[in-house]
Amino acid sequence: MPTPTTTELPIPKSWDEFEDISADILKRMWRDPYVIRNGRSGQKQYGVDIYGRPVHLHGQGTKIAAAQCKCVISLTEQEIADEINLACSFIPLPEEFLILTTLKRDSKLQTYVRTCTWKINRVEILFWDDISLFLSEFDELLKKYFPRWFRSRTSKNDLIQFLIESIPDDFEYDDSIGQYLCRHDVSVRLQLDRSEKCQFHEPWVKNFPDESAYRQEVYLEYNGYRVETFFFVFVDGFRYLIPFPKSSKDLRISQFQYHLASILNSKIPGYGLDLGLQNAGIVVDSNIMEGITRACSGWPQHSGNDSKILATADAQAVMLTN
Asked: pTM, whole model, 2 decimals?
């Protein structure tokens, strides 16, 4: 999440930059990708710098909302009234009109706008304090306009949640290096460990026509750093990549393991994860609600020596030192 003191964001130096910022905010506030700036410098704008069709106005009159941007050092009640009256000449008449200004919040002006009767159904004024708070909700806008004021923190839990919310199409797979690269954030990737080929021996792997099986570690990496390790098994001639079950006799996996396996198997030319789990006799248990490491690996956890030891009954123990 962004961590700047948003009320300290520097006021834009030019009216043009302020209009760009305002347009980007209104695209998101109104949920209208076609929000645009009105005309160009020198053309008559009728008090409207930006207009669009907000989702919340669908079915209401003209469905149009408009905005006037005031990058100024002062603003009077009369100037506000003049801008609103000008906007009444805009075709079609807006259902909603916003005045966005670089001034600090002013209760007197807020009261004036709120208590007067206008020809436009709804009129609001947003000050730099309000605009800064809106900016803080959108990382991409902070990075775009205020890169020096943007600082992000990404925790292990954030990345796990990112995986939970991802779908298979969010990743591109490069089989030459065993890498799943996130399309939307290239700092996130899932990496298959191909450094060694380690055979895996548990009874359930013999349920496949090809009984050979190989342990496969999958790393969640962020900006090139390994954040978490997940444990899988390639079975049936590399047709399926199956999560480690709880044990050789307790053939259950968590919902998170199933979700992650769905992402990984979507790029493998096999017969689909569900068929692989069915053949293995492995079931998804939505009641498995454990800590991140256990939920990811599905293995029993034992504590000792400030380490987490994860193992199945018949598999090699793997120690993850904190």
From this structure: 0.49
* CATH number belonging to domain 6-149: 3.40.1350
Cα distance between residue 215 and residue 315, in whole Å: 9
Omega before residue 92 within 30° of 0, cis? yes
Note the pLDDT of residue 223. 87
Q: How far apart, in whole angstroms, are the C-alpha atoms of residue 118 and residue 121?
A: 7
Structure tokens at 99: 């005045």
Q: What is the DSSP letter of 10?
A: P
Cα distance from N-terminal residue to C-terminal residue, the chain: 25
Domain boundaries, the chain: 6-149, 156-321
Structure token pair of residue 8: 């300290």
> Would you state the pLDDT for residue 289?
60
pLDDT digits (tens, 9 = 90+) for 83-126: 999 999 999 999 999 999 999 999 999 999 999 999 999 999 99
Enter the tokens of residue 161.
């949640």
Helix (H) or strand (E) run with residue 261 in it: helix 255-265
